[in-house]
Specification:
The protein is an alpha/beta fold and about 500 residues long. It contains 13 helices and 21 strands. The strands form four sheets. The chain has an eight-stranded mixed beta sheet with strand order 2-1-3-8-7-4-6-5, sandwiched between helices. Strands 9-10-12-11-15-19-16-17 form an eight-stranded mixed beta sheet, with helices on both faces. It is elongated. Belongs to the peptidase M17 family.
């Protein structure tokens, strides 16, 4: 089922299997719906929305009784307001105007949208008074809509009775055309996020490396060149690490390449870990966490979603996503602990633990990106280590690099889109020594997230490189802000913001 999104003249279909009940937005004024939302900053003495005197009086009394001081995210609901045609008025606090930025507004849009859907509210007028701070009111309106539609997305293809409430918003904002244009740019990013979420949320038996390659091929309609290498081709190229990880599954490994060439500059290479299911191999996983291992391809989903976002945006950038895809399974053909794999880089790797397979598929994918595309910058994205989750939880991803400028740029981009990153150190290469090979695939001590990143550093060459560990960020068990339950699409907005604003 294709998920449709409507914004006035825009109708963009996203790939995947998400629901078809997106929020709807128009920026052309009030429509006299049953609910009015008033956004109020702390600097405003009282809400201003052209209300009648009796309604204004009623509203001010309600706000006083609730001790409402317009703190960010705080709300007061007034039912059947005196002198108004609205059934309810919801006043929403914005906090200090100087602190009101894109991230805050998108999160607020998501939270308010979740509240409206829970209350089965379907028709909303939303009034922007003179609240602009870091952004114009038109930009704030676009960010609110962006957050609301991101929150609206859900993966419910397997549910018999899926939620079908559609919220229709009519924004009252001074510059409707500017708001429309600002949102249209964000809508392209949303399509990349939705693709990444759907791919991540899909069950493992329906999202094999072959299925992922087919989903990537769908991007050709947007001018993206897609190449898929199969196991025999991987062997011929000497990509023994990627091929070896996929050997235990029915379909084997794939290397999927999606290239959007919007400029003639040297490309940015985005390399994604694509383990469509991670059993752990012979170092098999135990406990309930194995049920979430369908999301171990979230890095590949994120970089593919970013390429889609760039293509829909018709951005003047050259971006290639290189995705190492495999299912890490147990069979008579699977690699065993103690085996040695030869990477395309020429380095041999002793597989001490078959559950440390993500760095193996990334090693060959990174080599391929460097050798075939000569990128200016290479960024790999992976749900790589439990160590990262123990260090940072799910509110930050971990970034590793010796390039201070790239770390600074990605940190700034993350703050804009609520996908924040935190720098962790590289090092401990001595703990990757093997008695029988050039490297072993796990550290013999030290911090696991760092030793994993240091393993990958062997395959970055002289290219400017950043590793992003998104373990813990790929799936959400609770709806909050712009994210619903399921795949989060984490990384698409981060990478898109970074690429569009700094490259």
């Amino acid at each position: 089922m294709l998920r449709k999104f409507t914004l006035s003249a825009i109708a963009l279909a996203t790939l995947g299997t998400a629901n078809a009940y997106a929020a709807e937005f128009s920026f052309d004024g009030k429509n006299n719906n049953n609910t009015l939302i008033l956004l109020q900053s702390k600097e405003q003495a009282k809400p201003q929305a052209g209300l009648s005197e009796s309604t204004q009086t009623h509203l001010e009394k309600a706000l006083t009784a609730a001790d409402f001081e317009a703190e960010y995210g705080k709300t007061v609901e007034v039912l059947a307001p005196v002198g108004s045609d609205y059934a309810r008025i919801l006043v929403v606090g914005l906090g200090e105007k100087d602190e009101l930025n894109a991230a805050a507004m998108a999160k607020l849009g998501g939270d308010i949208h979740g509240q409206l859907k829970a209350d089965k509210i379907t028709q909303v007028d939303l009034a922007f008074a003179d609240v602009q701070g870091q952004l114009s009111n038109a930009q704030l309106a676009a960010q609110f809509a962006h957050g609301a539609n991101l929150r609206d997305h859900s993966f419910d293809v397997y549910k018999k009775d899926a939620e079908k409430t559609t919220v229709s918003y009519h924004f009252s904002v001074a510059n409707a055309e500017r708001a429309q244009a600002a949102y249209q740019a964000l809508a392209h990013i949303e399509q990349g996020v939705f693709l990444a979420r759907d791919l991540t949320s899909e069950v493992a038996t329906e999202m094999t490396p072959v299925d992922f390659a087919k989903a990537a091929k769908d991007l050709e309609q947007y001018g993206v060149k897609v190449t898929v290498l199969e196991p025999k081709q991987l062997k011929k190229l000497g990509m023994g690490a990627l091929e070896g990880v996929g050997r235990g599954s029915e379909h084997g490994a794939r290397l999927v390449v999606a290239h959007y060439k919007g400029s003639d500059e040297a490309p940015i290479a985005l390399v994604g870990k694509g383990i469509t299911f991670d059993s752990g191999g012979y170092s098999i996983k135990s406990g309930p966490s194995i049920a979430r291992m369908k999301s171990d391809m979230a890095g590949a989903a994120a970089v593919l979603g970013t390429v889609k976002a760039m293509a829909l945006s018709k951005a003047d950038v050259n971006v290639v996503a290189v995705m190492g895809m495999a299912a890490n399974m147990v069979s008579q053909y699977a690699i065993a602990p103690g085996d040695v794999l030869r990477t395309a880089e020429g380095l041999s790797v002793e597989v001490v633990n078959t559950d440390a397979e993500g760095r193996l598929v990334l090693s060959d994918a990174m080599w391929y990106a460097r050798e075939h595309y000569k990128p200016e910058i290479m960024v790999d994205v992976a749900t790589l280590t439990g160590s990262k989750v123990r260090a940072l939880g799910d509110r930050y991803s971990a970034v590793f690099s010796e390039d201070d400028q790239l770390i600074s740029e990605l940190t700034a981009a993350g703050k804009v889109v609520n996908e924040q990153v935190w720098r962790l150190p590289l090092g401990y290469k001595d703990m990757l020594k093997s008695d029988i090979a050039d490297l072993q695939n796990i550290g013999s001590g030290g911090p696991g997230a760092t030793t994993a990143a240091s393993f990958l550093q062997h395959f970055a060459g002289d290219t400017r490189w950043v590793h992003i560990d998104i373990a813990g960020n790929a799936l959400s068990s609770k709806a909050k802000g712009e994210v619903n339950v399921g795949g989060t699409g984490y990384g698409v907005r981060l990478l898109s913001e970074w690429i569009l604003k700094t490259k």
